[in-house]
Design a protein that fits this description.
Chain A is α+β, with helices and mostly antiparallel strands and 485 residues long. Chain A contains 15 helices and 16 strands. The chains are: A alpha+beta (485), B alpha/beta (154).
Chain lengths: 485, 154
Amino acid sequence: MKTITIDPITRLEGHGKINIFLNEHGDVENAYLQIPELRGFEKFSEGRRAEDMPQITSRICGVCPVAHHIAAAKALDAAFHVEPPVAAMKLRELLYCGYIIYDHILHFYFLGGPDFVVGPEAPAAKRNILGVIEKAGLDVAKDVIKHRAYGQKVTAILGGKATHPVSGLPGGVSKGLNQDESKEIKDMVISCNRFAKFSLELFDDIVLKNKEYVNLIRSDSYTLKTYNMGLVDKNNKVNFYDGMIRVTDQDASEVEKFAVHEYTNHIAERVEEWSYMKFPYLKAVGWHGLTDGKKSGIYRVGPLGRLNAAEGMATPQAEKEYKRMYDTLGGKPVNSTLAFHWARLIELLYVTERAKELIEDPDITSTHIRNPVGTPGAGCGVVEAARGTLIHDYKLDKNGLIQKANLVVATTNNAGAITMSVRDAAKGVITKGNVNEGLLNKVEMAFRAYDPCFGCATHTLPGGMPLTVNIYDHKKNLTKTISQA
Amino acid sequence: MIMRTIVLGVGNPILQDDGVGIHVINKLREQVKDTEVAIDIAYTGGMNLLDIIRGFDKVILVDAIKQEKSRPGEVICFPLKKSPALHSSNPHDVSLSEALLLATRLGETQLPSEIMVIGIVVKNTIEFGENLSKEVAAAVPTAVSYVLKELKNT
């Protein structure tokens, strides 16, 4: 067996593997992405004090602690039958904007962007933030670092602690905002808004003006015609913090709209024996295997899923960019997986505008930030995590202890789509058994676009558990293994 | 000039062995009374770690390690720069090495001149839980002694 070692996995070193099966002509018959999921959270939660859940769940993932923190707080609002004061909801949403700011900046410039800014064919060693600096310049890099830090600072001020917030409680938040903090946040979000606009210009210059990249974005290998899902406000505009879950079809028509507590009526989970992941799908459409189109209940969440599932953005600058994306890429919905990157930047612009609205709202410095809780029961909370719809579902006993907890995380929602995107990208770049590093990066680009979060709770050094690609011939013999050094 | 040192335990406290760095720090706090030494924990990686260690001269990083051909509970010390494939095993962040390279490239001057990693080879990190496996729990005192030895060298 010939083993080739490559190093392109530097920006997504999960513990998983991709198994690619070739047919007798050496073309891709099928490809499966296998990722070991972290297990046992439900059991771990049982018997714990419900009010500890915002802290505990924020430890699930070193990446989206804010999303889990807020989803948990919202589930507790419902479980304790309490509606937080208006100011508390605005404070939570502002905290949330800070999180989306740093998360989206990190993904675009550090993880997803290098493929475009440096180029998909560039050597792996160059396809990283340092390569981006080389191409875009030191001043851009300084701005990236500065604005990512601003996002973090906003969440630290509002959350009471850097990275892992502690302010969310059933019925509201524990920490308000004083005038000085408010001023500091306002200056930061105004700067972030300028930076978001700059990022979209950069995307224009580097990606959209490059015909080759546009062709890549629009190519069949990176196209998936699934349903789309995301939270929307009362006007069907994208919302990260609250609203109804809306599902649109391949013609961009609304097919479902439901409140989070009804999610089990609309979403079911398929278990496949070859995968650790569960595959959610729309109950009304049903499971018909890993296939797209109207007859398959598979849907997409995350930046592109959200934009497709909504009718626009609630702020003027982002709305303009939203329309421009659809005009450029041929109308709604956009099914190009690589357009997730563009959608992400439009969302970045939206959250900076929304954050400015919130910080200028007189309610934001109110001291009425918590309402007393009622009797414990059951409740669900939903937010749009950076990478898609996140649901927390708790059942409490009469003493307020967790009896049952269920979490549907964003990457799980995207599991079917990610698997298909990997397969299609592999089909597009592997022919006659011909595989090389440049080709494999294009397979990785397919799942990197989703900004997935597989088993991301670990911080184990020094790696050594890379993503491995196994290639099997038509007799299912392993012919090649490609993994990180 | 006094050298500023930070001992930083990294890991996830609710993911069994992954949180061993935190367990080591908790033990260490009982033994180190020197107020000149900063002792902290972090449940995060990459760029966030950089924000914590900025301004220190020396960093002693205590973390979980997964490494083929090593047995759970083994404690390994190595300077960060000697590890070519150092990742925070987190798909949505850069490794600390990459974050440091970036900071250097941007001309930052407050970066630590020395980063030592004290790694404990782990066993269970896929299922949630607050307890360490037997092998890894037994390695905590060893890791603490390595940290103390490293502090004496500064």
